[in-house]
Amino acid sequence: MTDYLSDVLWTDDEIKFRKEVRSFCDKEIYPIADEIDHGPYPKDLLKKIGHAGFMGVHHAKDVGGTDRGLSYEVIVAEEISAANGGLDMARMASTTLYGMPVTRFGTPEQKKKYLEPVIRGEKIGCIGITEPDVGSDTAGMKTKAEQDGDEWVLNGEKRFITNGSQADFMCAFAITNPDVKSKEGMTAFIIDTKADGFSVVKDHDLLGMKSARVSWLKMEDVRVGPEMILGDLGQGFHILMDELDSERTAIAAEAIGYARTPYEVAVKYSNERHQFGRPIRAFEGVSFKIADMATKLEAGRALTLTAARMYDKGMNITKEGAMAKLFTTEAAIAIANDALQILGGMGYTTDYPVERFYRDARLMTIGGGTAEILRFLIQREVFKKML
Ligand SMILES: Cc1cc2nc3c(=O)[nH]c(=O)nc-3n(C[C@H](O)[C@H](O)[C@H](O)COP(=O)(O)OP(=O)(O)OC[C@H]3O[C@@H](n4cnc5c(N)ncnc54)[C@H](O)[C@@H]3O)c2cc1C
Question: What is the b/e burial string over 80-108, where b = at least 16 CB atoms within 10 angstroms of the residue's CB?
């Protein structure tokens, strides 16, 4: 159906599912993809995505998901991202970045109240890791939660939080025991964003991803009961690391989506645009770019599916998730850049969506672990066996 080389790696059901997601995107997203780039995306659209079943493919049936696995989530991520990047970033922040910690570590009561409506697309989730002074070095987290009787009192700031100003719930990480290393002293909490003391400092003005909202948040004496602790006290760092594996694999799929549309536009344009009496694809300077773009897309898809398959089998994918994200995100930036070059001046205009994807793709080597941090992780895993 898609003529991707990687079609031999997907099951018939996955290929059928991709078709379903794509026809949903054709009907509901592509017609407004440029318009919603002035943001924020309409919340109703997230509800439609949820009701179509595309928020819960990697969540269990008892919380409203379809329990099909991360290999289906990467299909959704690629397809929606190919239509509008910011929209999928918002969808994924809700269902994967926020949703996976709750699905994997939440109690049945937490899942009922704080996850099921998110999977239906009726409520929005976000994840709060990054802070003004804490980016790549997550173990240096400053947000604190102090016990007061039965309750916990949270104080701190979270920066660059996708969906922050739109979210109903946040999975927030905080230091609960400053006397031990943060790997043992960090705890994850579910925060209701309507709680007293929770505020939005501002939405960041971004280069791309204009249909999403990415916010700076503040918690001043936000009080929560013990039932809002996710997992065990002191398990936060483990939950954070666990979340990043699924996040990075899903981001890898988004990167393929951000690259796919500019690639397809460039292929068509290079066939139609004539200079020196022939289509510009007749010039190697153009057609070799197309060859490299096509190859990178296929390689990225195979790497991403490998990580997703391993995750679905319960295997550790710290290295494979990092590899998939590193490769596809650097490829997405290069592909969007080459596509823009192939369109010449038209690529620099908003008449074509290429400039939008060029801006969106640039985020990809930063959010969810920078390319430098991913290289560090990959080499660490490579050498682990030798040490
Ligand atoms: C649009 C957007 C959405 C985001 N969404 C979320 C979200 O929903 N939730 C959330 O918690 N966070 C989110 N983030 C934050 C994102 O994960 C961080 O920006 C990212 O982890 C990097 O942190 P930093 O920006 O503080 O950069 P820093 O950590 O300050 O890094 C700056 C530079 O130094 C390099 N560097 C740092 N340490 C090393 C090292 N040891 N070796 C080599 N190089 C190094 C980095 O690679 C980078 O190039 C988002 C960010 C953006 C821009």
Answer: bbbbbbbbbbbbbbbbbbbbbbbbebbee
Token pair in block for residue 180: 């031990």
Asked if 47 and 121 touch (Cβ cutoff 8 Å), the reply is yes
Q: What global pTM score does this model have?
A: 0.96
Q: Does domain 5-124 have CATH number 1.10.540.10?
A: yes
- Does 222 sit in the ligand 1 pocket, CB within 6 Å? no
Architecture of domain 244-384: Up-down Bundle (1.20)
pLDDT at position 5: 77
pLDDT-derived band at 385 (thresholds 50, 70, 90) equals confident
What is the CATH number that goes with domain 126-237? 2.40.110.10
Domain boundaries, the chain: 5-124, 126-237, 244-384
Read off the amino acid at residue 39. G
What DSSP designation does 136 have? S
Residue 293 Cα to ligand 1 midpoint, Å, equals 27
In this predicted model, what pLDDT tens digit does every residue of 334-356 receive, in sequence order? 999 999 999 999 999 999 999 99
40: preceding bond cis by omega (within 30 degrees): yes
Q: Between 284-312 and 70-83, two packed helices, what is the crossing angle to 10 degrees?
A: 150
Low-confidence winner among 31-40, 60-69, 225-234, 282-291 (lowest mean pLDDT): 31-40
CA gap 158, 166 in Å, rounded: 14
Shortest-distance atom of ligand 1 to CA 138: 21
Write the DSSP string, 40-107: PPPHHHHHHHHHTT-S-TTS-GGGT-----HHHHHHHHHHHHHH-HHHHHHHHIIIIIIHHHHHHH--
Kindly give the number of the ligand 1 atom that is closest to the alpha carbon of 206: 1
Which is more confident, 196 or 182?
196
Beta bridge partners of residue 230, listed in sequence order: 188
Q: What is the pLDDT of residue 2?
A: 59
Instruction: Give the residue whose CA is nearest to atom 26 of ligand 1.
Output: 135
Candidates 94, 136, 329: which one to mutate for ligand 1, based on the most atoms within 8 Å of Cβ? 136
Q: Tell the residue nearest (CA) to atom 16 of ligand 1.
A: 367
